[in-house]
Amino acid sequence: MMQIKKRHLANFGKNVFCYALLIAITIFCIFPIAWIFKTSFETPQFIRNPNIQWIPLKFTLENYKSVLNNPNAMIGKSFMNSLIVSLISTVISLLITTMAGYALSRWNFHGKNTLNVYLLLVNMVPGTLILISMFIILNKLHLINTHIGLILFYISTGLTLATWMLKGYFDSIPVDIEEQAMIDGADRMTVIRKIIMPLAAPGIFATGAYIFLKNWNEYMAASTILQKSELRTLSVQIVNFMGFQRVEWGPIMAYSVIVMIPSSVLFIIAQKKMVAGLTAGFSK
Prior knowledge:
The protein is mainly alpha-helical.
């Protein structure tokens, strides 16, 4: 009886520790975003107050009006630039990685294990090193200051991880389903199109959402490859917008909230499919 009580107390202590740790991590992650959101609705006088006040005494939309009416913000143009670059790079990446992931999952060929290891090792290479070499290549191809150049960079740097993610998802789909369909007379392409792709849709959707969000929020490559103001994406334009301000944190925070809205909405809509797709590849 005493052993059972001790076991229950030990389990209770572990649960309390785990929940406390999760709550602390959640607060740590949410706090900066909540602070940005709060500051975007505050008046300049309230923001400059050296005393920390958690709840604004007065809410205002002037910061958002200032951003939307400021020609230097270029929100509409930058939004379209981000949408074009992120969407095109995501679609092309999915077309390539879906085929590559299926091939690595189903077909046995010489060097397959080496290629799987390569996919993991490439993701450990710092992005700055890849950016330097890619900048030289794109410069020789006269693709600097073009959306095509940035799209090619996003595709080339996102293929390995996306392929590895989709391979894991295809591994979770039983091979028996394909074999049974082929016994019934279906060819390989019919099986892929009518059976495998519908079953793999959550994984493909999750991978696509991951690629899109990563490219949408990326800054380093976008600021290096796109140097003309009319070509900049939102993540780059917000930094340049800060340069036009006299450290007016209200408009800057309002701009930050506007930049976060599309990716936040996408994540809220797709979170269930993203979690299902990302976790399915780890279990069979």
